[in-house]
Amino acid sequence: MMKGSRIGRLTRVLILLVGMAFIFSGCEEPPTPPPVTRRKPVSKRVAKTPPPQKASIPGRKPAFSYNPQGLVDPFKPFLQIGSVGKTVEGIPKTPLQGYDLSQLKLTAIIWIGEEESVAMVEDSAGKGFTIKKGTYIGKRGGKVKAIHMDRVIIEQPLRAYGKRSKLREIVIKMPEEGGIK
Fold first, then answer.
1. Binning pLDDT at 50, 70 and 90, where does residue 98 land?
2. Which carries the bigger pLDDT value, residue 180 or residue 110?
3. Domain boundaries along the sequence of the chain
4. How many CB atoms are located within 10 Å of the residue 7 CB?
5. What is the pLDDT of residues 99-111, one digit of tens each?
6. Domain 79-173 has what CATH class?
7. What is the mean pLDDT of residues 38-55?
8. Which is nearest to 106 in space by CA: 154, 155, 153, 152?
9. Residue 84 has what pLDDT?
């Protein structure tokens, strides 16, 4: 029995030694970095290179040439609503033309008849302006077309690129009594 236990012990020791040999054979010292070599400073002189010459053959046109003269600008919007910031010819710009129509609220209408009626609009700060038929209003060149008992109709030019402008009617209604519109 001694012989069997001795062989088992030897086997275990041998396996242990072989395993340790594998473990220690894989452990090497990290490689040392290569030595740093100092380079000599380069002189500040820059060699002059001749400018590149155009490779052209006499009598031959370039492959592509773009001339935008008379062509449509691809970055300009197709539809333009009114003329932003431009004054109407011959008429000075009024304070009402500095507001967008969505910033104005109709507060009062004095209706005498179709031609003589007057209305009052208010900006968000509470400043009031009186308008009548023919008054220019809004940033986009709108003009008061008519004043009715309960609403004001404004014509605003709608310009399509390359075509005559069409008119768009915008209606501003009086708010209901007791409610804010």
1. confident
2. 110
3. 79-173
4. 10
5. 888 899 999 999 8
6. mainly beta
7. 64
8. 152
9. 46
DSSP string, the chain: -HHHHHHHHHHHHHHHHHHHHHHHHH--PPPPPPPP-PPPPPPS-----PPPPP---TT---S-----TTSPPTTS-SEEES-TTPPPTTSPPPGGGGS-GGG-EEEEEE-SSTTT-EEEEE-TT--EEEEETT-EETTTTEEEEEE-SSEEEEEEEEEETTS--EEEEEEEEPPPTTS--
Backbone angles phi, psi at 12, to 5 degrees: -65, -40
pTM attached to this predicted model: 0.48
Pairing state of beta strands 128-132 and 151-160? unpaired
Number of residues in the chain = 181
